[in-house]
Amino acid sequence: MRYEIDLACGRLTIDTSKEVLPLEELLDFATRRNPKRGFLFVSKVLGKHIPCRPSRMRAIYDLLIESLHAVPGPVLVMGMAETATGLGGGIADSLALRRAGADSVIYQHTTRHTVPAAALVRFNEAHSHAPDHIVYAPQPVLAPDYHNAQTLVLVDDEITTGRTLTRLTEAMIQHLPKLQRIVFVSIVNWLDADARTCAIGQRLRLAPSFESVLEGGFGFVGNPSFHAELPGQLTAKREVEVRADLGRRGLRMDCWGHQLVRSTPALDRRRPVYVIGTGELGYQPFLFAEQLERQGFDVYFQSSTRSPIAPGGAIASSISFEDEHGEGVTSYLHNPPPTTAQVLVVYEAPHCAYNHALPAQLNAMPVILPGFDRRASA
């Protein structure tokens, strides 16, 4: 099916070849404040730029892992920072639940932060507003299953050229000598058959298979009168230490406890609740939001981001603030909650919440993620 979308930056034309769910349920569109690429596919089910119900997000995770429950294990699932850190964690979680009693499922996401560990891989995402990625060595207790992984699952919200995932796969193969299968998982996949076979499959020792909800191709004609500049500070002014136990050095998903926050904050069941993840912290706040939804609250989930997006289209409004880690990087919350909502902003550590501007701007309650359950890495 063909779709034509007019944006400030130009006209986007989409031809879909596979829609497990209709495009209108999955995507909206916006203009980037980025001269490298003017348009942006904005997911309605990712829980990033557009608020989404946790149950809807879980349904997407379950859909994407339907054909993966029998892949050989151990399974290493990797999500891409920062947009797909929550998506990757959710997919790994749904996969572990489906494979209960089977070989281990380990989740790790790439990061743009510094942790006290050796880096396994560093690579660049060329078109991104924040291109540098790091993959750290796993926690020592995870290392045997990690390096003996037989299936590698790479997760991103959208695959356009596949170059970033291919670059990461080439690097990771060197650390996974028993690897038998590679799977690229995305909500949307724009690669045609030649790109999958020639540009990606022939570069890798093992050709990947692909799982997605929507597939097709697109074309873009830019508006010559539109000019974009990257705003704000996009790279860290200084290094900061962040928690390493939340996915940056791996999580054993089949031991993860889903009762993430033991005591629910005092909330009014008559008013909607918005749970906000911060930056790369997407998976655990999603579990918290899912927990509240299962308790009967009217819950929506979304995350802050470093992605600068112009107002219009999918982005009704945005607020900006310095990142939660104090790196001096400009962050954003697109489509912020209505003033009638109860808002909980989830941070990975107390120092992230202290003096952070976001809770005050939203009249929100900061929530500090509790100490990591060590069983998850045992």
Q: Could you characterize the architecture of this molecule?
A:
The protein is an alpha/beta fold and 378 residues long. It has a single domain, classed as Rossmann fold. 20% of the residues lie in helices and 29% in strands. It is built from 9 helices and 19 strands. The protein has helices at residues 23-26, 54-64, 85-98, 143-147, 163-173, 193-201, 283-294, 350-353, 357-362, and strands spanning 2-7, 10-19, 27-31, 39-43, 75-79, 105-109, 119-124, 132-136, 151-159, 181-189, 209-211, 214-222, 251-252, 273-277, 299-303, 318-322, 330-334, 342-347, 365-368. Strands 1, 2, 5, 6, 9, 10, 11, 12 and 13 form a 9-stranded mixed beta sheet that branches. A 4-stranded parallel beta sheet has the order 15-14-18-19. Strands 3-4 form a two-stranded antiparallel sheet. Helix 2 (54-64) packs across helix 3. The chain is globular and about 50 Å long. The N and C termini lie far apart (48 Å).
